[in-house]
Amino acid sequence: MPDLSDDSFRPVSGFDLPRFAGIPTFMRLPHVGLDDPRLARVDIGIIGAPWDGGTTNRPGPRHGPRQLRDASTMIRAGNGVTGVRPFDLVNVADLGDVGPNPADLHDSLDRMTAFYARVREAGVLPLTAGGDHLCTLPILRALASDRSLGMIHFDSHTDLFDSYFGGTKFTHGTPFRRAVEEGLLDPARVVQIGIRGTTYDHEDRDFAKAVGIRIIPIEEFHARTMEDVMEEARAIAGSGPTYVSYDIDFVDPAYAPGTGTPEVGGPTSWQALTVARLLEGVDIVGADLVEVSPPFDPSGGTAYLGISILFEMLCVMAGRVAQAR
To answer: Quick check: is 2 in a domain?
Structure first.
């Protein structure tokens, strides 16, 4: 059991060092590399995936992790709503960034899988800041190498398309089609929440229906209570190991404009935080927040919402880890 009395895993307080000072790490936590002996004492690792090689229109999420780190200096030690103090419950560290190959998509995927395989081998639960949504596929390849996972997916897009441009199989619109085909996800334990926007066709939804993925479109989300929607999501995920993937474009662009493929009509920032809190009870083996794109986020508000969502997921994960001890 990690020594939680070790102050080296506590975030730097804004009372001790101003938030605009110091070297930014996720939530002002210690940086622990994969070769650092302290890795054995880490329960949850926050990781940057600075890569957007799967983007098909407006690039920029490769710069997301750096902006999210900077915004995360505003995160404090306690959750003002739930009262959870994750850094009192478990050891959390910034594990740094996956080093992608910006000139080679498949090499980047392989590099990410290898990185997360080492994280899993160390017994650390990964919490990732993307990057575009294709980043989730290599993470799943590492985490689901020996069993299929369930998934709770917040997004305005299904990312279940087969290919783009006449046969390109790996884009940010295809990761979950590949994940189902590769046996990484159990489609009967997958739910996608917030789907909306104009369409080319219904290929993605037809695939979801054929394999048993539950889609909760935005009109249904708004017609129900968040508590009701998330009760169903938790039931679909069940008691088995589950991955949570959260695309910032789940949120209405009035609240989160800094993303490459925005869709109007989405949830508010308050709803975005609430659904993350309502993940409590899910056996989360990894989670991500993707598609924050700094070139379209001049005020930094999208990044701050993104890191706030990551903090909510961290609180849920920390509580479960602590409870399991």
So the answer is: no
Provide the whole-model pTM: 0.96
Q: What is the pLDDT of residues 86-115, one digit of tens each?
A: 999 999 999 999 999 999 999 999 999 999
Q: How far apart are the first and last CA of the chain?
A: 8
Residue 110 placed within a domain:
yes
278's tokens? 């309502």
For residue 223, count CB atoms less than 10 angstroms from its CB and return exposed for 0-12, middle for 13-18, buried for 19 or more.
exposed
Pairing of strands 214-217, 284-290: unpaired
The 8-class DSSP code of residue 31 comes to B
Whose tokens are 């189902």? That residue is 180
pLDDT of the residue at 63:
97
Residue 5, pLDDT above cutoff 70: no
Report the C-alpha gap between 20 and 126 in whole angstroms.
26
| C-beta atoms surrounding 6 within 10 Å | 12
What pLDDT shows up at residue 4?
A: 60
**Shortest CA distance to 98 belongs to which of 137, 133, 145, 48?**
48
- CATH code, domain carrying 190: 3.40.800.10
Question: Is 134 strand, coil or helix?
Answer: helix
Which residue segment(s) compose the domain that 111 sits in? 7-324
pLDDT 10s digits, 184-243: 999 999 999 999 999 999 999 999 999 999 999 999 999 999 999 999 999 999 999 999
Candidate from 99-103, 137-141, 165-169 with smallest mean pLDDT: 165-169
Secondary structure letter of residue 124 according to DSSP: P
Is 169 inside any structural domain? yes
Of 28, 24, 31, the closest CA to residue 12 belongs to 28
pLDDT digit string, tens, across residues 35-60: 999 999 999 999 999 999 999 999 99
CA distance 87 to 78: 8
For the chain, how many structural domains are there in total? Answer: 1
Q: Phi and psi for 258 in degrees, rounded to 5? A: -85, 70
Residue 120 lies in a domain: yes
| Residues 225, 229: Cα–Cα separation, whole Å | 6
Which amino acid appears at position 104 of this protein?
A: D
